[in-house]
Predict the 3D structure of the following.
Amino acid sequence: MSTHYVSEAPFDPHSVERLTPEQERLYLASQWQLMWLKLKQHRLAVGSSAVLAVIYLLALFCEFLSPYNLHTRHTDYIYAPPQRVHVFHDGEFVGPFVYGYRYQLNMENLKREYTSDTENIQKLRFFCRGDEYKFWGLAETNVHFVCPASDGYLFLFGTDRLGRDMYSRILHGAKISLTIGLVGIVLSFILGIVIGGIAGYYGGVVDNIIQRLIEILRSFPELPLWMALSATLPVTWSPILVFFGITLILALLDWTGLARAVRSKLLSLREEDYCTAAQLMGAKPRRIIGRHLLPGFMSHLIASASLSIPGMILGETALSFLGLGLRPPITSWGVLLNEAQNINVVALYPWLMLPVVPVIIVILAFNFLGDGLRDAADPYK
Amino acid sequence: MIGYILKRLLFMIPTLFVISVLVFVIIQLPPGDYLETYIAELQSQGESVDPDRIQFLRAEYGLDKPIHEQYLVWASGMLVGDYGYSFEYGLPVNEVIGDRLFLTIIISVVTIIFTWAIAFPIGIYSATHQYSWGDYGLSFIGFIGLATPNFLLALVMLYLANVYFGTSIGGLMDPEYIDQPWGIEKLVSVLEHLWIPVVVIGTSGTAGMIRRLRANLLDELQKQYVVTARAKGMKEKKLVRKYPLRMSMNFFIADIGSLLPSVISGAEITAIVLSLPTTGPMMLNALQSQDMYLAGSFLMFLAMLTVIGVMLSDILLAMLDPRIRLQGSATK
């Protein structure tokens, strides 16, 4: 018979299931930290947010990054095609440069034809002085990241019917196209939370009316309604007022989804004990909703809000494309695409369609990011 | 079942009422009425304006009455098929619209059938082959389809057709059939042109539906009854066809409610780009010239189209699923 064995080591309650430092951090992490961890695993979402960050930075510094101003016209270079940036000329290193253009009018189809003049080498300049602009509306300056040679031109994406550089215009247009989605989502977020909150918290008749209203609004084909509403904006309004008008119109039809989410969450959460406790202590509905109920599902709201940003950007693009949205001098990608409405012009000068590319990239990136956020919003799953 | 249909029809009345009020408000929103614009235009061209005629027009269209009476005139006219007067064309709205509305309906219906025909098999494939290369590839294409706004797609296709085939793919029929009475040949010509707008409009809807069908079917596939059936040795194909697929059919029909508004929106703007003889270009025109009665009628038609479409899908759903029929509400 063997002797009874007793371990000499002191008792350790975690000996079977020892937590690694990583596990311990995971168990101690707050909800937001968990969401962050989960979001980081969604590679597509991380990549998309990087892309979006770059694009927003580009928009923020658009005056500096673009070689020309929004309205600078080159009357000798109307509908000039995009120039290619070369580094070598005749096998010799020159540094980044473009060839100048020789212009001639094709008398057959009246197409403006430009040919590269390989004798005319125009070296690009960097951190150089060009068109004057007001940086963020604060300081007058004329420093640009890249400019053409002092007597040359630089049209990376070609020019439009007034000889304005498309590359500069697309960069400037990003500013408006990208902000309209954000401003719009803030408006629709507020509308959605307030209306959905009222419906969900009070229930009953109020809830019923709001529900019907949401159903009706959702059954409306969005775009025709947007078109009709934006056509009612007075022509006398200044472009900046029109900008806010369009944003408001976009938000007015967008809040329904958020309101529904808020309502259904509130309906289930208001039965919880902590809500009753707050009521017994005499908290007002506003405080209960704002302080106790909303934070519980804020992450879901943010995720679904981020998914409706692309819709807003598209809405603005579509409206401006049709000529019912923003008006020059305010320039967005949709306003730029408005020039590409006539297929006969586009067939001759296809670079007018280039603003399509950033629109699609931004929409895709927001979709991927929203997907990742939605998955991360529920980290306990 | 009849009770359900009746209930559903009754429910449409308040919906259409609210929509009509909304549309009427939009018609009234621009400052001044069309006559004022008209007078200003005449004056700027140096033409004299006969005040009697203006007065006559004002009385004829009830523009001198208070707002709520104007609404009553307009709404009751709608009910008996009098959609008001297009000031720009100088014709009653019915005559201006012609078969544009009919063509819009054709395009929308064909687009929805197209969407179903494409989305159904792909959705099933993606769900049953989750995380395979096929699934990833289709999802990626779907994402691009979802992100490409259909008017841009229309523009790009128009450009490609122009450059590579030298033809214009705009329009909905060969030029010789325009304004001709309907016949077999005209129908064939329409069908030949139809596929381009259908593909353009249907792409984003199809992509969205594939993703929703996939998610829905994946949910079903993880349920216990599927595991049970599998454990009992049921063949995979039969299993999917017999149970989860039927469950997600429900959702498939119900999804038309979210599909239809986007299809009609897409049809409008695509029609403008491709210059199809549907309601889109004319509505844009009416909006730009502030011919609000015409624009309002279009808006009302489109909304009605959606409401009726959603109602049909609800009835279909009730026929398919007894739970909805008996409880009287759709569960999504």
User: Anything to note?
Assistant: The interface with chain B takes residues 212-213, 215-216, 218-225, 227-229, 231-232, 234, 310, 314, 317-318, 321-324, 337, 340-341, 343, 346-347, 350, 353, 356, 359-360, 363-364, 367-368 of chain A (CB under 8 Å). Chain A has a mean pLDDT of 82. Residues 168-376 of chain A form a domain with the MetI-like fold fold (CATH 1.10.3720.10).
